Amino acid sequence: MELTLDLTYLNQISGGDKEFINDILKTFLEEMPKDIKKIKEGLNNNNNALIGKMAHKSKATLHLLGLEELKNFALNIEQTIKKDSKHPEIHNWSKQFISYIEKVYPNIENLL
Amino acid sequence: MKPATDGIRIFIVEDDLLFAKTIKYILTLNPDHEVSVFKTGMECLNNLHLNPHIVSLDYSLPDMTGGEVLRSIKAHNPDIGVVILSGQQDVATAVELLQKGADDYLTKDEANKERLFNIVEKLKKSIFLKKEVETLKEELSDKYQSNEHMKGNSPSMQQVFKLLEKAAKSNITVSITGETGTGKEVLAKSIHYNSARKKSKFVAINVSAIPKDLLESELFGHEKGAFTGATTRKQGKFELANNGTLFLDEIGEMDIHLQTKLLRALQEREITRIGGNETIKFDARILVATHKNLSDLVGKGHFREDLYYRLLGLPIHLPPLRQRGNDVLVLAKHFLNMTTKENKLKSMKLGQTAKDKLLSYSFPGNIRELKAIIELATIMCNGKTIQREDLQFNSPKKVSNFFLEKMTLREYNIKIVRHYLKKHDNSIPVVAKILGIGKTTIYRMLKEDEEIAKKNMKS
Questions:
Q1: Per the CB < 8 Å rule, is B108 touching A10?
Q2: Which of A21, B96, B98, B436 is the least buried, fewest Cβ under 10 Å from its Cβ?
Q3: Which stretches of chain B score pLDDT less than 70?
Q4: What pLDDT digit, counting tens, does each position of A4-40 carry?
Q5: Is residue B25 part of a domain?
Q6: Domain of B64?
Q7: Which value does ipTM take for this structure?
Q8: Final residue of a domain: which of B281, B299, B318?
């Protein structure tokens, strides 16, 4: 899984505006743990619908940061839940997703 | 094209704060945009009193679906442009939301700077055009409500104004008669724009201006393939005027066969397009006008009697300008002000000699002719006051110049006699018959005239 950020898109739209890019990165560090907390809630309560919702929400953010493989991973979780809400692999994939995200945090902190 | 307002208020409704910040950053690159972010559908709805022009709406919100928020936004104000931003490429959802009134649909992966700007610019143009159309409609309505073009103090026009008021308050068919150029269409528009139907269309059709074979299609529409050249379906004027007013000008020129179809449409309040089977109900107020005497046409068998009574409704006759006394000056001043304003000329006034000349002219072309005369006078005039010589009467109807010269009754009489003699090869018996006077009277008048001419030469 490629967990290195690709900031091409953010640089493109902002013309390399560092202040804006740093704000986006800080927002990720503030907001993503809240979503991860909800995924963990979903795992604890067997609430796959909540997991699917949070996977869906994370996609746009991951796309903006150029984390395409991780975005596709989230998409797979979301779509699998839509097709089969009790799919046996959901919990396993969700845990993997959480661990990947947690590995992204230090990469971002290094950029700030 | 400049937007209708200096600032465009945009709401971003998005629970993903990072994505919302990115969209906000992109949209605020244009300093005309005033962007606010709301994390829930309810927050957005609670702030609609701020009158956003455009809303960028996430389809999946924590408290409501995008569809629910869209419905509430459009119920609040259908003119707010709504762009749905969705995380998924779901064609069915996109189609459904577009049908429910969304103005555009974009997946978040595609939400780059160019796409967003294109959509926003497109919506801004649409908002601007809608506002422009509304403004023009209001201006048009105000123009005819204030009788800007229906001016006159003469008793005959005061009577017209009274009838106009009655016509505007009711839904009755109105038949307007009057010579060419007396303002029949202006009166019809005044009725429409002062009536309860003023927010709907005023559709006018001049029966005499459209070839007989095309008129039926113009009025009733046609289906694709109904005849050679009917490559697409076309709505007729009756359908276009639905909820509004249909003005049939020069109704007296309508072909007798088409009159039958018109009568049926008016009786049944429904039409069938040419080549179609479906009957289409319509609710249009009918106004008709003619410069001919319809009852004469009925007598001659050129106009159906039953249609005549169906259309007669409230008859309003517009008097010719020559019978409106000082209204000529009222209208002349109005056209003078209008022309100088429209052409950014210095303000002008009518001199006494010009007023006298206008009052002594018969205006066979009525108000239309007066307007043209005044427009030309503003160009011919070298100073600030229009004089007699600045007014040029170029009516093709020669009789109009008859009253221009100041003459005694005897001089008028001899002029009439000489006019007819010239026209009829100096045949006194023929002219006597035409004018209804004796031949000896004509001989006497000619003799007197010659004697006066001789005296004048001697003196």
A1: no
A2: B436
A3: 1-6, 88-90, 135, 138-149, 395-406, 457-459
A4: 889 998 998 888 899 999 999 999 999 999 999 999 9
A5: yes
A6: 8-136
A7: 0.88
A8: B318
